[in-house]
Amino acid sequence: MSDDGVIKLDNVIPFQQPTITLSIKATSQKPLCRHNKVELDSDFRMIRCKQCGGQIEPFDWIKQYANRERNLKWEFENLQEKQKRLTASIKELNAEEKRLRARVSRLKRKPE
Ligand SMILES: [Zn+2]
Hints:
Elements: E1 38-41, E2 46-49, E3 55-56, H1 58-109
Bound molecules: zinc ion.
């Protein structure tokens, strides 16, 4: 501050406004591997994924395999039921087609 009460700014170095740059790096995470292809390492008694190379807990793999089997069985049963319904539907449609063809044939023969 000078004698006249005025603040001189000659010797004041202004603060530089910091430049803030935010950068978000995209993570290169691999998609979750389902370990669909595995190999057994008999020497080390391990299960290893052929796709990601990860070591798999044997119990987890057996559990996952059992769940897949159960889901496949459930899906197979559902498909069998759907097949039965569709077969019955086709049978009904064939019968309807036969009735309609017979009706058209009768109408064509009918004298006017
Ligand atoms: Zn894997």
